[in-house]
Amino acid sequence: MNLSTQSGFQNWKEDDSFLEKRVTNFANLEGGKVYVLKWHFVSADRLGQMEELNERAQNKTRVMEFIFLGFPGSLYVQMGIFMSFLIMYILTVLGNVTIIILVITNSHLHTPMYVFLCNLSFLELWFTMAIMPKTLAVFLGESRSISFTGCLLQMFFNYSFGCTEFFMLSVMAYDRYLAICYPLHYSTLMDIKLCCKLVVVSWLFGFLAMSTPTVLISKLSFCGPNVINHFYCHIDSWILLSCTDTYSVEKAMFVVAIIVIFGSCLITFLSYVYIISTILRIASAKGRLKAFSTCSSHLAVVIIWYGSSMILYIKPSKRSSAEMTKIVNILNTIVTPLLNPFIYSLRNKDVKKALKHSLYWSQRKTFVM
């Protein structure tokens, strides 16, 4: 390409505080066309003023609150969804609170297995409470808006509780592995001190895992639509609504998903492989059936939790189906916390015995009074 300059430098001005250099009439004569380019070099003071003005313009259009869309439908559909969610929420709270009270008040349940179950119920309780109160308000149509800070905090706690549950499930699988594969050495391998340490580590790593993505999301700019096509603040919503590059957020979430989901899934999977292989060597058919029925219940919840989580968190893409994401989220946020108390604890003979004992003494106290 041949370039020629019709005129040189013009309007050159230089002093201590300002420097402007303008090159005009830089012509490209290729193909008989002439393009005029202008280059400006400004001082640091002027650049600062320009950046300040640009920041003010962005602040004027910065989104300070979001609006939840929830599930589309008529008033009857909304009320039906509200009643369904409300019933499941109440059952979830009652079931998990019951487990916590039973484990705390019955000394014979103060073993590592039930300490894990108590912490799981406590975790499920907060995991549900981080979302459901606001979700119920959205379906009622009373408060569909949420502030930027409120949405960020809801997402942080929801995902942190979710990451903690992954670690907790893997720890519980490891505990069952020790109990079934090494029954004679279980009491020495897994004592209360080690149990408490594993619980603390699960909570700590769960919250640390979401720290970096949350900081990155807080630095995103939102200057366009503020309608979230969901019933709570999901990671996909932040990615879709941001008017700046979200590459760092998507990659950070992908790394977190690999470490948290696949890491904990590997521990859980290997634990259950050894558990099943040990059960198959049990001579009694009745013993094998009983053990398999317990493992199948555990595996059912684990498969639902891990399967739905992998769909949601492994690849938060802007092109993912919003309606499908909402449906899958129901499994994580509502169905799984509802099933856990019944599958993990209320089907257990020791928990049933403790529940009957507590009901008996409560009725006796009421009769005496």
From TrEMBL:
Predominant location: membrane
Membrane topology listed for this record: Multi-pass membrane protein
Domain G-protein coupled receptors family 1 profile: 95-344
TM annotation in the entry: 75-102, 114-132, 152-174, 194-217, 252-277, 327-346
Keywords tagged on the record: Cell membrane, G-protein coupled receptor, Membrane, Olfaction, Receptor, Sensory transduction, Transducer, Transmembrane, Transmembrane helix
Subcellular location: Cell membrane
Domain of life of the source: Eukaryota
UniProt family annotation: Belongs to the G-protein coupled receptor 1 family.
Name of the protein described by the UniProt record: Olfactory receptor
Organism phylogeny: Eukaryota, Metazoa, Chordata, Craniata, Vertebrata
